[in-house]
Fold:
Amino acid sequence: MTGAAPNQPIPLLAQPVSVLSGVGPERAKQLARLEIRTIEDLLLHRPRRYEDRRQLRPIAQLQFGEPVTTRGSVAALGVKWYRKHTKSIFELILDDGTARLHCRWWNLPFMEKYFAVGDEVIVFGKPVGLKPRTMDHPETEVVEPGEEDVIHFNRLTPVYPLTEGLPQRWLRALVWQTLARFEGQISEPWPELRLAGAPLNLPSRAQAMRMLHFPETVTDTESARRRLALDEFIELQRQIRHRRQSFETRARALPCRGDNHLIKPFLARLGFRLTDAQTKVLRELRRDLSGPHPMRRLLQGDVGSGKTVVAACCALMALESGYQVALMAPTEVLAEQHFGNLTNWLEPLGVAVELRTGSRKTGEVQSPKSKVQSRGSGTGSQAPASCIQQRATLTIGTHALIEAGFAPENLGLVIIDEQHKFGVAQREQLVRKGHYPHLLVMTATPIPRTLGLTVYGELDVSVIDALPPGRGHIHTFVRGAEKLPQVWAFIRQRLVEGRQAYVVYPRVEEAGPNGVKAVTKEFENLQRTLAPYRVGLLHGRLRPNEKEEVMDAFRAGDVKVLLATSLIEVGVDVANATIMLVENAELFGLAQLHQLRGRIGRGAHDSYCILMAAAKSKEARTRLRVLEETTDGFRIAEADLKLRGPGELLGQQQSGMPKFRFGDLAADLELIQQARQLAAQLQDRAVAAR
Ligand code: ADP
Ligand code: MG
Structure:
């Protein structure tokens, strides 16, 4: 150890593990595979579980099916081969004086060489039989003579994630020695915050690291986790604050508050009144658009809560101020739909609306299909086109907007719909088309608070927390595949009554091994079953003009049933469609199903969401019941976060998702809120100290 000043211990812990005795190049390579490169990494290597080795259970007292740690000496061992020497069982028989335990491993014949008769072995496993007592594939650890009991036995013993060639005991001993040697060097990262002890009642970071590896009690492990998680959250909040601050010192806002000359007539001819929830959000947006820093805001609103009209108002504020606006949507279908609606809404006001998608040529000004209906708005026949300068435009598109050809002169506002479908990088690419334009990102996936404060920590959040009035009730049912005939009869009845239906399949192509139905094949069946009602087919492999044709026919009511992949998950708005049938619903996340369900219940008629689950998966059905129980998007998102983790909830494209060793986004809201306050305190102190 050289070079580091005594009161700067962090660099010590930042040294590579190779400085530790016993860690040669081979071991260092193995540790690196576990992402352990520095001493600190090693001390933060989180045990997978703990074994209570203080009172090992005698073999005679093992219970069927109950996971347990026990110990015995090897009485016999051997490999049996069968099926012409292609399959094997390795068996190890342990005896502790009370009884014998048979441990079996299939097709791992080389295990024989790890054990010898007379070895003392600790095993952890679940008895699968008691006559004789048997465990299959238990975890084992051979007790080396002369080993320190205090590290490996007679205690709550950590069991670590390993990698090939790295022995559990060796790693445990390494952690033990490293702690002994460096414990005094583990300092508080932010001493001024006084995290240890009262009032937060947390251990110091040094104590936490010891408790993590060698706890005295079971509750120690959770105290340690909480302390180390808090450190992670504080660090993240510091970074968020720092980035936000440096953004605000760099970026001056474009004045986009508008003067109401477009919004007033827009609202007057809209055909409905904004809800209080929408009005409240608009007030927040206007404040941002007239503030000193560019807006960076996330607008959350459950499916059908009316985000589009709010986005339109926001666009009008920027347009009124003489700036251009870009709106990016994740699919062509959705971009087309926005284009239809917004053209109907805004062209009568003299605003030029453009569409740019992969299939529509750049810069080409489209006139909307007259078929595209915008509920409540007028037909747009007498456009007072003179009242606004022509260059004030709204450009709507897909990711095609990111491409080089799109170069708005005077971009004041970027709006991103269904933002979880885009990565942060794509969002920033579009923002960079202007000089610090305002940014509004919208999502219908309700974001649990924990994610709002971490993954989206750099954005301010607005929530539309109520649906427009007059919506029909949505009934949700989970059904097994055996009920399909009744389900179709029910759907046919709704078609007779004049309603329309979505039918969603998880895949486009031919069936996978699990009997996933193929949408293309199903299309033919469905056409036969539902004749004379017309069925349309929509999936990602269609050409854009084909997609558009199908959607137009569905909107117009010519096509009664739309068979689709989850393509229609986002944004599609057809009020007369009151049925959503999802096949193999167990393959979707809850939040995604909630989105799909959001396609219905948009008119006054009652709607029905029917989730078909493959007969086998009982567990999946239980999960799906959450949707039967609630239509509250937040509850559903929380459930999804707990069941499937943040990656699934936010979509795979979300790069920059913080990784935590100890923090748990599904459970640590309180810690995250604390970290946020503490990070603010740190910043205040830093300012005061200047
Ligand atoms: P989402 O928030 O899912 O994007 P949309 O913006 O597509 O929802 O709105 C759903 C439907 O509700 C649209 O047809 C829209 O015109 C309608 N709508 C929006 N706001 C209101 C309101 N205040 N009153 C009545 N209908 C509304
Ligand atoms: Mg929408």
Summary: Residues 218-250 form the longest helix (33 residues). Confidence is low (pLDDT under 50) at residues 1-6, 362-389, 509-516.
